[in-house]
Amino acid sequence: MNNTQDPTTDDMLIETDVTDGMSESLDLTDRDTIVRSRNVNVWYGSDQALHDITMDIPENSVTAMVGPSGCGKSTFLRCINRMNDLIDSARVEGELSIRGKNVYDDDVDPVALRRRVGMVFQKPNPFPKSIYDNVAYGLNIQNIEGDHDEIVERSLKRAALWDEVKDRLDESGLELSGGQQQRLCIARAIAPDPEVILMDEPASALDPVATSQIEDLVEELAEDYTVIIVTHNMQQAARISDKTAVFLTGGELVEFDDTQKIFENPESQRVEDYITGKFG
């Protein structure tokens, strides 16, 4: 069962910033794995959405999560930054850590966590503000020091949007095309320099050209960030990801491995059947 709620305005306002709110007791010796889950279970009321999810997600990489609708991909994604806390009926058990610190420990501030973990939603959701103010939003509300003009320019360049908007930064972000709006949202997410970027089907509402631009951008972002992306597009996962997690109906993680192995030589017959289109 996936999260059935669309992101609210409040959800969008807590995308990312830089904070010390989760810096205590972090294990910085384990540099290879940044996100680690152990036996993560999620319920919405009496319905169990995820069953004993265990995986280690490496830093500075792209990890794709694939599987049929309703298999729990987005639910797990939202566990990482505790967005499921916003759903009254949601309950999470197990351990999910970032750099060795369980994000569900009592001393972890969920809002501070979300400031370290950026999120890009399925549909572009720029604020009704100028292009510049969209990117600078997190910098302003979080009182991040530094040259904001420089950070905005750098973020737009990282999002492959600068050349298209550098002469119109005062125009509304809502006037951009769909693909440009999504890249603007990515620039907004990376401006405060988070550690992890979550993407929930970021190209599903875009045309092929815009989708290709987003895919190129995801691969570039992995040089500086850890990207975890949910996608229904198997070819997209094969093209851009280093690791692939295959979720199947019932909220079960059936296989998690290098993407090439998942697509060329999966261990599970169920995964092979799904990859080859025999079901799902």
TrEMBL record:
InterPro entries: AAA+_ATPase (IPR003593), ABC_transporter-like_ATP-bd (IPR003439), ABC_transporter-like_CS (IPR017871), P-loop_NTPase (IPR027417), PstB-like (IPR005670). NCBIfam families: 3a0107s01c2. This is Phosphate ABC transporter ATP-binding protein PstB. One of its GO terms (molecular function) is ATP binding. Keywords: ATP-binding, Cell membrane, Membrane, Nucleotide-binding, Transport. The gene is pstB. It comes from Haloferax namakaokahaiae. It comes from the Archaea. Residues 35-275 form the ABC transporter domain. Pfam families: ABC_tran.
